[in-house]
Amino acid sequence: MDPKRARPDHPVHELLVRRWSPYAFDPRPVPPEDLRALFEAARWAPSSYNEQPWSYVVALRERPEEFERLLGCRRRATRSGPGTPRCWRSGW
């Protein structure tokens, strides 16, 4: 059996069983057209009462200063617990 395959206690959809959450970033860049498709899908995602409370932050490795700044925000958020880190909300 695939070591990354989930072993649920009860039947679940195959898509969820094969889902994988990595612990590290892949060094390969994400093609711009894939990013656009991802954000278009997110734009169409349902939200409670059509509030659409989400926001997204993208930093590319091709811009190392921005990428490192975003990683720093994520690390601080992980250590400080739930909630949006101030550096994400401040508009940089």
Concise account of the structure shown:
With 92 residues, this protein is an all-alpha fold. It contains 4 helices and no strands. The relative contact order is 0.08.
Major sheet: none
Question: What Rg, in angstroms, do the CA atoms define?
Answer: 17 Å
Number of helices: 4
Shape descriptor reads extended
Mean pLDDT: 78
Uncertain segments are none
Number of strands: 0
**SSE string:** HHHH
- Taken as a percent bin, the fraction of beta residues is under 5%
Helix content: 40-55%
* Alpha-beta content class: mainly alpha
Cα(first) to Cα(last) distance is 45 Å
Question: How would you characterize this protein structure?
Answer:
The chain is an all-alpha fold. It has helices at 14-17, 32-43, 64-80, 86-89. The longest helix has 17 residues, at 64-80. It is extended, with a radius of gyration of 17 Å.
Descriptors:
92 residues
Write the layout of secondary structure elements.
Blueprint: H1 14-17, H2 32-43, H3 64-80, H4 86-89
